[in-house]
Design goal:
mainly alpha, Cytochrome C Oxidase, Chain A, 73% helix, transmembrane
């Protein structure tokens, strides 16, 4: 670990000098821990065992869902916003004290959920719910000073993430109106709505820049503003509808609109020209899985096949997992002054995440008699991806580099 001095008496660990450093590394480490814990529980269950004294008051499947959305994904969101918003607004980056302090709050949230069997559920809720408002106040303060109006939508989406987490905790506290599964759906679909927005900006933009630099002579990515708006609005409305437990026809219809409109957007981004550059095709692949996940969710609500759980995993593992990994690996390079070229192990990690999503979404339907084997294969692919990420990016994130904006 290297340190940045700011006085003769104090020094700052590099890990806390930028939001992306701490939160991307924390997210990667937690992605491993959370999946190992989930697979361990599945293994015990498959063997016919049980835990005499569970450490968490939350049902294991809900712990898994909650921590993947409100633990792992929210950490990546924090790292992204604490890095991107200062670039958008020209404001100073978050101070190390803020990064370390909010990092402590995020870790505390993970701990109280993990040990919730021994804690008061109100205390658990207060600790775990504190993180997103702290992040929102910081992000909102910068956005309200100087930003394009379109970026203010992210404050609303952070509010939806808070609301989804609150729904889960209300059920765990036994409060009327709480609905843990609605909270999972709201949080996950809000996350992928962020991908519909941010992916729609960065995927064609980064692709265009890279193709121009390479001297590519073919067609460049094109934007379709009407479908951009439809794709984003339908994605947000879908998150709201699912969180409010709207009728299946409404949820399915919004998912179908989101799939079609975002598919039309994606079709113009020249995916076929990116196959030589994993740092580009990883983002394209994640956005494609977003479209496929919306389509699967629509057919699930209209026809009952595939299962809703399968469709949500295609969105959660494939779109959210794939895009967060792609963004973390790219942003870490760009903001530490390194060339925007990923190594072969990271390209393998991108492919492993996509395969994990497909296996988890389709495997239980195609091989119902091998359910646990499917779970372990998918989980193993996830673990492979994030082990590779940590091995390659620990020195990038934890040690000094020349921080600057990426493009």
């Amino acid at each position: 670990m290297t340190y940045h001095s700011f006085s003769e008496k104090h020094s700052i660990p590099t890990l806390f000098t930028a939001g992306f450093r701490f939160y991307f590394l924390a997210a990667g480490a937690f992605a491993l821990f959370a999946m190992v814990a989930w697979l361990f529980w599945l293994g015990v269950h498959a063997a016919g065992g049980s835990f005499a004294e569970p450490w968490t008051a939350v049902a294991p499947q809900l712990w898994h869902a909650h921590e993947m959305v409100y633990g792992y994904t929210v950490a990546v969101v924090a790292g992204f916003f604490l890095t991107a918003v200062p670039n958008w607004t020209g404001s100073p980056p978050a101070r190390a004290m803020f990064v370390a302090g909010t990092g402590f709050v995020w870790i505390a949230g993970r701990l109280v959920i993990w040990f919730s069997a021994f804690l008061d559920p109100v205390f658990v809720a207060l600790v775990d719910l504190a993180f997103v408002p702290l992040l929102g106040l910081k992000v909102g303060g910068n956005l309200l000073k100087k930003t394009q109006a379109r970026n203010l939508i992210f404050l609303g989406l952070l509010s939806l993430l808070f609301a989804g987490n609150l729904l889960m905790h209300l059920e765990w506290m036994g409060v009327s109106g709480g609905d843990a599964m609605a909270g999972v759906r709201l949080g996950l679909l809000t996350t992928v709505a962020m991908i519909a927005i941010i992916g729609g900006r960065v995927v064609p933009g980064f692709t265009r820049n890279a193709l121009n630099r390479s001297g590519y002579g073919g067609k460049l990515p094109v934007l379709r503003p009407v479908f951009d708006r439809i794709g984003i609005v339908s994605a947000i409305l879908l998150a709201l509808a699912a969180g409010l437990d709207a009728p299946s026809a409404v949820v399915g219809g919004l998912a179908a609109i989101a799939a079609i409109s975002n598919g039309i957007r994606f079709a113009g981004w020249r995916f076929q020209a990116t196959w030589r550059e994993p740092i580009l095709w990883s983002m394209h692949l994640a956005f494609f899985l977003l479209v496929a996940g919306y389509a699967a969710l629509a057919t699930s609500h209209f026809f009952g096949d595939p299962s809703e759980i399968g469709a949500l995993h295609l969105l959660g593992v494939g779109a959210a997992g794939g895009m967060t990994l792609a963004i973390m690996t790219r942003a870490a390079l760009g903001h530490t002054g390194r060339p925007l070229v990923v190594s072969t192990p990271i390209a393998v990690a991108y492919a492993a995440i996509a395969l994990a999503a497909i296996v988890r979404a389709c495997g239980p339907t195609l091989l119902p008699e091998h359910y646990y084997a499917v779970m372990f294969v998918s989980g193993g692919l996830w673990l492979t991806a994030f082990t590779l990420f940590l091995v390659v990016y620990l020195p990038v994130l934890a040690f000094s580099g020349d921080e600057k904006a990426s493009n």
